[in-house]
Input
Amino acid sequence: MRQHWKDRSRQTRIAALRWFAAVCSAFVAAVYAFGQSSDLNFPTPLDSNKLTGTIKARDIGDNRLTTHYFVFMGTQGDLFVNVVSNNLDADIDVFAADGMIPLTKMVVASDAQANETGRLIYLRKPERLILRVQGRTPNDLPATYQVSFGGSFAVVKGEKGVDAPVVDQGVSGEVAVNSVGTILPKKAEAAPRTDVPKPSEAVAERPEPDKAEVSEKKEAEVASKKTETAKAETPSKPRPRRERRAKVVVTESVEAKPPETPSAEKKAKEVKPKRESRRRKRPEPPKAETTPPVDPLANVKLVIVFKNGEKTEIGMPDLMKFTVDRGQLIVIRKNGSIERYSMVEVAKVTIE
Output
């Protein structure tokens, strides 16, 4: 009896291993590089149960998300979806194409080196499905993802991927910018030089030297060398020194100015105090008396009458602000002092 149960347990284990191998074989397929469409109206059709994609890093300051759309078919039954991502922060959704009804959602993060997750979807009838991958890379390195399907997955037959219309990214102005608005440096284009002659023209323009001219040049060089050596061999005579005589400069006689007489000095001293006295004696013009402006609030007062019969008067020129806050009458004077009175004790507040 025990041997019988042991055989039964072995058979169940073998059956489980075979089932697991069949499921793994359903997931295993050749990896193809699919086109990545970012337009919902032109999704990329899947012709295999395994796809890989890449999301490139955007410019610094560009916080937009990158979105990829794929279309495939699902038959009746359980649909297995497995996702393996690397350096990716994204939301991966599966929709029913008719009405974009959400069927499942997976959130992947870049906290680990490689992140793996999966979902199981039950389909009651064959449907056309849309896979959306929407996310970005947290750094300057590209993000990669790999999605595998199993179970009731079916490829799209007889449908070719149509490329979405692309806007021309050519720059027609003088200034080129990136997606954030940063001005890009201009590419310097080297202009072709027109003054450089071609090798054939340079060779053609060179005239052939005559033999007679070459011989004459050699004779002239030899003669010039001989004269130079002769000059170097002959000793040079010392030149006689000339005595330098001091030059005598004759200038015209300058007549000395006659000394000033004491009478002129006295006159100059007498003239100065007279002028100073005249300046001092000039009366200053009377200054116009400015009357200070009359303050219209000089006679206006804030009167506070208390219930016990006391009264406080504050002139408006000395008053800056008064208000009631939390059952207290607060009076702020211009000199910075603050007076607080309880409204329970105040009988009347008037301005007279």
